[in-house]
């Protein structure tokens, strides 16, 4: 599926790509609304509707991913609530071998994520995957999410790359479309970002189930 000889730069998303998206879906859809209800002594169903409505209002924006924004908006310590269930953070199958092989190759490998640094730090501490990257790019540092075409211009300014020989793997197809519009030449998605949900069958971009399907040479 990938001609590795034609790839010199690899951009990898984190949530739903390297890590199981089940943690994030459970946190935002269940744990956060429930704890919000407990902290503010509100009806749980009402709290669930309130939190989901607020999340929907900023979907796809930088605030949608921002721990500080949600801590302020909901008057809860979102980072602390994430740590309450950090045992659920899980690396997807074959990811560590995939990262190890990329790290040992001459390719530049960057973690490129919309995750806020407070959430990112928790996940890196739990998984240890940070050691495999040549750099970590956080959209909050660039002040624009990956869904925005301007993100890729900002990324190129900080970490120059040749678009035609760059591979991006991301579970978010809006992000992949943004990258394609910029000109990134190799794009791939995940068919089952959340292991607790059904595999996707209607992805616009080529997809894999696990990373052993595209393992680079040892």
TrEMBL record:
Domain of life assignment: Bacteria
A Pfam family per the record: HAD_2
SUPFAM superfamilies noted in UniProt: HAD-like
PANTHER family the UniProt entry points to: GMP_IMP NUCLEOTIDASE YRFG, PHOSPHOGLYCOLATE PHOSPHATASE
Family matches, as NCBIfam families: HAD-SF-IA-v3, PRK14988.1
Name this protein carries in UniProt: GMP/IMP nucleotidase
Organism: Candidatus Litorirhabdus singularis
Record lineage: Bacteria, Pseudomonadati, Pseudomonadota, Gammaproteobacteria, Cellvibrionales
